[in-house]
Automatic annotation (TrEMBL):
Its EC number is 1.2.4.4. This is 3-methyl-2-oxobutanoate dehydrogenase (2-methylpropanoyl-transferring). GO terms for biological process: branched-chain amino acid catabolic process; response to nutrient. The lineage of its organism: Bacteria, Pseudomonadati, Pseudomonadota, Alphaproteobacteria, Hyphomicrobiales. Residues 4-179 form the Transketolase-like pyrimidine-binding domain. Its cofactor is thiamine diphosphate. The keyword Oxidoreductase applies.
Length: 337
């Protein structure tokens, strides 16, 4: 099977979808001739032409607004916001228009758009290139939110998102584009070419939206993670020598609550980790759901490990970034409670 980076897997998903359906169009800032700032769309314009893969003005509101109108008339736009940090001008279009079209039209119209955006830190991008805004989307009824952790999932989930009749926010952890970064920034990153989840079929396949995956089976504590933090969780469990079960959510909305509940009822303990700031982060929703559904199975308080409640600090990147050390200490704390 072909080995791909996450960049190549994302590109392959768009390629397969564009070849299969002439209504699929790709556009955004620098995604055409240049192939995107991370090269995720490289070669698509040359292959499919300037009417199906094209550059736009620097206007996120315009990109998403145009995509909504195109979707209402039968096209399937897959648009790129160059960094997740730049999506705020488009937030009105996403929340007031895209998310509500099915509801406000009583099902007469849908909005089959995908909004791709690189998310998260770990690349010394500072405060304007490192944000993780996923919780801003999970609060909005009508949006689906996906955060893959590896190339295999990225391709299958992106094809599923493009084929979905409703708007999907597809957040790509840019620290994972070239390898499964586990938070040990002082060590070389293993490339996807040497990782099992770097094996990606070349053709069409999908992964169901709303289904989590257990990446590590354990009996002592459940770790709920997504994106880059999945690899951090795996490293922390190994470093701390704790029999942790690691759940990769993959999809935040819809959420695979059954997998979380079954795991916590088995282990009796739960740690939730994400890179976004702590307050009102998506981890708070997971904690609330675990508390509501697993209270009588819990043997210790639920713990969250997350970014600080500050802008992403360039000078203190690795203190802010929830690494294996911070997560390992939380696991030990929960086990000793």
């Amino acid at each position: 099977m072909t080995r791909m980076t996450m960049i190549e897997a994302v590109r392959s998903a768009m390629d397969v979808s564009m070849a299969q359906d002439d209504n699929v169009v790709v556009f955004g800032e620098d995604v055409g001739y240049f192939g995107g700032v991370f090269r995720c769309t490289q070669g698509l314009q040359a292959k499919y032409g300037k009417t199906r893969c094209f550059d736009t003005p620097i206007s996120e509101s315009g990109i998403v607004g145009a995509a909504i109108g195109m979707a209402a008339y039968g096209l399937k736009p897959c648009v790129e916001i160059q960094f997740a940090d730049y999506m705020y001008p488009a937030y009105d279009q996403l929340t007031q228009e895209a998310a509500r079209i099915r509801y406000r039209s009583n099902g007469d119209f849908t909005c089959p758009i995908v909004v791709r955006m690189p998310t998260g830190g770990g690349i010394f991008g500072g405060q304007t290139h490192s944000q993780s805004p996923e919780a801003l989307f999970t609060h909005v009824c009508g949006l689906k939110v996906i955060v893959p952790s590896n190339p295999y999932d990225a391709k299958g989930l992106l094809i599923a998102a493009i084929e979905d009749p409703d708007p999907v926010m597809f957040l790509e952890p840019k620290r994972l584009y070239n390898g499964p970064f586990d938070g040990h920034h002082e060590q070389p990153v293993i490339p996807w070419s040497k990782h099992d989840l770097g094996e990606v079929p070349e053709g069409h396949y999908t992964i169901p939206i709303g289904k989590a995956e257990i990446r590590r089976v354990g009996a002592a504590v459940t770790v709920v993670a997504y994106g880059t933090m999945v690899h951090v969780a795996l490293a922390a469990a190994e470093d701390a020598d704790i029999d942790a079960e690691v759940i990769d959510l993959r999809s935040l909305l819809p959420l695979d609550l059954d997998t979380i509940i079954n795991s916590v009822q088995k282990t009796g303990r739960c740690v939730v980790v994400h890179e976004a700031t702590l307050t009102s982060g998506f981890g708070a929703e997971v904690v609330a759901l675990v508390q509501e559904n697993c209270f009588y199975h819990l043997e210790a308080p639920i713990v969250r490990v997350a970014g600080w409640d500050t802008p992403y600090p360039h000078a203190q990147e690795w203190d802010y970034f929830p690494g294996p050390g911070r997560l390992g200490r939380a696991l030990t704390e929960v086990m000793e409670a």
